[in-house]
Structure formats: structure tokens, C-alpha cells
Design a protein that fits this description.
mainly alpha
């Protein structure tokens, strides 16, 4: 799929404009409630689905199908991101009013990471056929790990990137309002909020590798992979404030996500065999069916249970 430069420029301007509007509307660092988060989630999801329609009218049903398949996988994996972000915010006792700022800049970093991974990954798959086997096996392994090691204890302080930052940059173990840096005893230091941001970015870096590899298993069109990632990630902050208090009900969702990662890995490996690439409609059907079963199974298993903490800001 050949995409002209103007399309990339228009998309970049649209994403930048949406981020600017979001930052302006939340410049006062207020606590985001469920209703506000639900409205913004609806806006982001509508934008993501609408872009698929634009892509269908512009490039045809195959491109739109690949986009929707990638968008659904990324959106589903975002739920796992939300769970981890909730653990990080709880671990560092991040005040409710500051969580959006961390997530906003976390999303900016996530978009940049994914852009790099997408072009590098697509170039590798195009130049070296054997990288499909490497990426495929990596996705299968990641799926196995998600299915059987999902409940492993997470300690953000032990994260290699967080430890490196604390060693290189002088830090203060306190929050200084919404500032990432502050002056303490005459010297400029990073605040605890900056450490939290680094923990979020370092965690998302791992998710970015998984999600980009999974979408590259569907299509190697950098434009489709990038747009699917971008529109899914843009709604990550609102998704967090919608779901953080309800995640305890999604007890079996990780099995569905694990299956999708493994499916993407097998699909990528098969693309370099006589079987070839699996049809997009089949891929889209597997994704929808898997998510429906995993979510339905989770909700049925937790029926009657009241999630602890209806609002994510209860961690503050």
C-alpha cells in the first residue's frame, strides 16, 4: 500500500491537534471522574472507527480490514496496560489530580516509541525473511508468558530504567505539585512524579514491542500499523480512568490476549511458508471472537462481585 507524503503530514497534524486539545482541557490537573473519562473514551473510539471508514473509502476494504484488526488488537492490549498503570500509580501513591499528566506525556512517549519500532520492524521483515520467524516465536513466547505468568509481582523500583534514571539524575522522593523537576536546597532535582513517568514509559516500551509485532503480523504497511497504534493509544488515558476500578472483573481477559499474541506469532510464521498470509476477514473474526469469549467468560465468573474502588483515583 503506497501512501503519499501528504497523508502522513495530515495524520501527524490531526494527532498533534487532538493531543493539544486534550492538554488544554486538562491544564488545571483536576481529578478525572468516570463520566468525563467515558465521554472522552467515546470520542477517541469514534475517531478510531471513523478513520477506518476513511481508509476504506480511500484504499479499499482490505486496507480497512487490516486497520480494524490491528486497532482491535492494540485496544485489547491497552487493557493490560491499564492494569499495570494502576499498579504503578498505587505503588507510588500518585495523587489523583496528577495521574492524567503522567499518562498524557506517557502517551506522547508511547507514540514516538511505536513510530520507531514500526519502521524498524517493517524494514526488517521486508529485507530479511527470517525475521518473521524471530518475531513470530517472540509473540508466541510472549503469549505463553502472559497466560501463565500474568500474576507475577511487579515492583517498579526494580525496573532497570527507573534504577538507571535514579542513579544518573538526582531525585527527590517527594511530589512537588505537577512538576517533573524542582529546586531543592539550591540544586535542580527530578521529582517523584518524574520517576513515575519513567516507570510508565519503561513499562509501555515492553508493551510497544508486543503490540507492534502483533500488528506487523497482520500487515507490513507502516501507515496502517502506525494509524492503528496511534488511534488506540490516544484513548489510553481515558480508558484508564474508565476501567481502572473495574479491572478485577476482567479475570480471564489475559488468556484471550495471550491467545491473540500467539495467534499473531503463528500468522507471522505462516506468512513465510507455502501457506502464506491468512485472509484479513479470518484474522478479524478470530480477534473479535476471542475478545468476546474472554470478556464474557470474565464477566460471568465475577457476576455479583463489586469491584473495589469504582474510581482509579482511590489510589491517591
Amino acid at each position: 500500500m503506497s501512501v503519499p507524503l501528504w497523508a502522513w503530514l495530515v495524520l501527524s497534524l490531526v494527532i498533534a491537534a487532538m493531543l493539544a486539545v486534550d492538554l488544554f482541557l486538562h491544564r488545571d490537573d483536576h481529578v478525572i471522574g468516570f463520566r468525563e473519562a467515558a465521554i472522552w473514551s467515546a470520542i477517541w473510539i469514534t475517531a478510531g472507527l471513523a478513520f477506518g471508514v476513511v481508509l476504506w473509502l480511500w484504499q479499499g476494504d482490505e486496507a480497512a480490514g487490516a486497520y480494524y484488526a490491528g486497532y482491535l488488537i492494540e485496544k485489547a492490549l491497552s487493557v493490560d496496560n491499564v492494569f499495570v498503570f494502576a499498579l504503578i500509580f498505587g505503588y507510588f501513591a500518585v495523587p489523583a489530580a496528577l495521574q492524567h499528566k503522567v499518562l498524557f506525556w506517557g502517551v506522547v512517549g508511547a507514540l514516538l516509541f511505536r513510530l520507531v519500532f514500526i519502521f524498524v520492524g517493517a524494514e526488517l521483515l521486508d529485507r530479511f525473511f527470517w525475521t518473521a520467524y524471530v518475531f513470530g516465536l517472540f509473540l508466541v513466547y510472549t503469549g505463553w508468558k502472559m497466560a501463565f505468568q500474568h500474576d507475577a509481582e511487579m515492583n517498579p523500583d526494580r525496573n532497570l530504567v527507573v534504577r538507571l534514571v535514579r542513579r544518573v539524575i538526582p531525585t527527590d522522593a517527594r511530589y512537588h505539585g505537577n512538576r517533573f523537576f524542582a529546586r531543592v536546597d539550591g540544586r535542580r532535582v527530578a521529582t517523584l512524579l518524574f520517576v513515575v513517568l519513567i516507570a510508565v514509559e519503561a513499562t509501555d516500551l515492553i508493551f510497544a514491542i508486543d503490540s507492534v509485532a502483533a500488528i506487523l503480523a497482520i500487515t507490513t504497511s507502516t501507515f496502517i500499523v502506525w494509524t492503528a497504534n496511534a488511534f488506540a493509544v490516544l484513548g489510553l488515558r481515558s480508558l484508564y480512568f474508565c476501567l481502572a476500578g473495574l479491572l478485577r472483573r476482567f479475570v480471564h481477559l489475559h488468556y484471550g490476549l495471550a491467545f491473540l499474541l500467539a495467534f499473531a506469532g503463528v500468522k507471522l510464521i505462516l506468512s513465510e511458508t507455502p501457506v502464506g498470509k491468512l485472509p484479513i476477514p479470518l484474522t478479524l473474526g478470530v480477534i473479535v471472537a476471542t475478545l468476546a469469549v474472554a470478556i464474557g467468560w470474565s464477566l460471568a465468573s465475577t457476576r455479583g462481585q463489586v469491584p473495589a474502588g469504582d474510581e482509579p483515583h482511590s489510589t491517591g
